[in-house]
């Protein structure tokens, strides 16, 4: 018989996870269908719906986003980039009201929006367990497809998103409306361009790019992007195959998706660039 | 065409779907809503290998699991049930056959094939126990590709066959090879049609109840009478003790024609347990059912002016494992529907229908006819490209002239009627073709890839296939009560498309009563006359035809009774309209006439108090006698349509975006134009999905990788533009109301027009489209191939 716990606080949730054999359910949009179809049969489930981990707090230096914050809440917030991305989550109002940003981070599906966005934002993730708390950088958190630094006895409590004073852009590429994201790119445009690419590899790629001098269509700058994408991909062991698209395809289109996110960021800033 | 507005409820009007409100408010009852007392639930244990000999099945743990009532293996099932009769027996077509069992006995030939069944108190208990059934296999080499399966050393799927080919056939007349040799140009190519599926919103399901030596099966199926006969044969129970009831069906698309192993299986489980047993297919099981998968290698020869002289096409169709369902036979229609609506009398079409270790093809909207259009329309566009002619002009010069109908095609089909040039004109007007070509030039100057594609589709409908369950007639009873209300009982069933509304329109129109006096009874073998259900766009042709004859009998009887009741003479003209009988300035309500006849019959004269009629109807234009070339003519009606797709292709990602879509449709007289359009939109969307995003993918071990709607991409609303519908009415001379089959047309036209549009969009890259689906990775592959070809040419 499966054990089910619905803790009413962070402390209770941590206690419920202490045995290390529980599956954590956030919004349940991934885990519950997996259970329904028998793809996973966890011995225990810890359902965070009442653990009080939702909500967004702003202060002078950034935002603290609770792990259980839904896309619906996020899309009405002012959190840079995340609010924008929440608008484009596939699945309609039901998914946007159920799905949580923390759940998506912990599920670490390469074909999802949140991991790369957290990396682009330089978010720091607060993991809390019976042994204590630790804060890890988003770019360290994602270890492999569907694998994170989170230990089974830990849960993700909050994500700390530093204030972003710079323009940002986003581009998501899907095969069709019903498709999961194939390649995404999130860009924060400063002196240099910080771009995180999702979907192309098992973990988000972080790129440090030159700004284009004559527009994002400039062949020389495109070569630079291609080079940086290829290097980042080889650093993580190459692109990620999934049933919808081979890795080689993702590697091939990733530079174009990056260019579109960059164009989006630069256009947001100057109003001059266009994709 | 000018016409007065059609009165609500009459033939040609679009009254609302009779069950629309029930469906929209969630009150309709589907199979899974039925839960009789004592109900048990079944789960099917399926093969985990693509090809293997069953060595042992250990059911001990499952039998001891919570709530389990019965665990059944193939060996045990074979003691109680014989083979499942074929819907279309390959032997009737001179092909190889095998016994289809409800559970495999010795060997499995595809991943997911039923090997055992578990019956328990709840579905969860049955699922848990099913996981405990341990099957040990001697794994055999498997083959997942049809061309590979034809190799002499390929794994042999059915050991007593000479190979893996069910049947090889040749179709066509004339001397295509000589015509090609005489042609100014010959274009050739290889076209791949990917494996897709039908995915109705309601999966298959059966609820069998064995009680008092009688078997009642509630089924989400298309053909209850055929299912009764098949269960009678496989289970050895007399038909008179079997009742099949088809409640509301949430979409069928051919998938729910019978012949599936689970039909016999669930009935057997009820017999063995003595309790009602229900099985509802899981979505992963539904997605195993293939709809189409073919490779065409074709050559077309044409004169310099675009006139096509000859066609040679070699088709390899991968039907997966053999099934008793009708699906394996679909590729026959891919062959015979060529050369479509083009006047090409010299064709040689070779067809191999090949088995592989994949799940079977099941009948699917289009029934193979769709593939003929994808291939012909690609060929026509290639001829235009080779000769630098406009694709619309090449169609115009090759279409069968409108004054030549009925027209016998090279493959033997006798097209009843049509005006293909008229359809082309309508579509070109609707898209403003010259302006669109200018817009395309402007887009190209901006670096955008805008493409326009045309696709003609000829849709043979209402099949009557000798030696099969595919019958070209049906039977309907029309019965009026003392209140004047009418019950229509018909052998035609509705998969949800609304033919009940159309039949009610016909009956109310023919008798002259309001449509809401008419009640329909369908899908109950104890109540309805013998019939064949729904397939092949037959319901309004044969259901409508038989309902018309029966309704006219009832009307005649009403008139006869009214003459006596109203004291009219033989010469007085009598009319019935809106439920009132009128003659010579006097009138009488139809219910009064009905009551007078049914309660006072012999008192009002020598007239029998029977106000009902059962009639059968078979349209003309069917001929099963082979001609000198062995050709038969199984389809009475031929709907036609012309499709135009406008697409934008992103050359960086390969993504195709649909900008506009127009379909000009001719199904003859429309009984209910709104329902015709509803069917056409569904068929087009199915075609668009198979053209762009849908694809069943298998892992190397033969298991289905695309087993959910996140990995099998049906089109969503945002993927499909507003589909614009135009109508042309060329009545069939061979059916009761001039109507032709409606409901299948759209799949092939959508595939063809999108494929042609994508090639047109990427013309500057020299791309040749050789496949569907054209998903983004496939489009980039085509661009690479074009690049490689042009590099090769430069060397």
Automatic annotation (TrEMBL), chain B:
Residues 25-141 form the Aldehyde oxidase/xanthine dehydrogenase a/b hammerhead domain. It comes from the Bacteria. Keywords: Molybdenum, Oxidoreductase. SUPFAM superfamilies: CO dehydrogenase molybdoprotein N-domain-like (SSF54665), Molybdenum cofactor-binding domain (SSF56003). SMART domains: Ald_Xan_dh_C (SM01008). InterPro entries: Ald_Oxase/Xan_DH_a/b (IPR000674), Ald_Oxase/Xan_DH_a/b_sf (IPR036856), Ald_Oxase/xanthine_DH-like (IPR016208), AldOxase/xan_DH_MoCoBD1 (IPR008274), AldOxase/xan_DH_MoCoBD2 (IPR046867), AldOxase/xan_DH_Mopterin-bd_sf (IPR037165). Pfam families: Ald_Xan_dh_C (PF01315), MoCoBD_1 (PF02738), MoCoBD_2 (PF20256). This is Xanthine dehydrogenase family protein. It comes from Nocardioides hwasunensis.
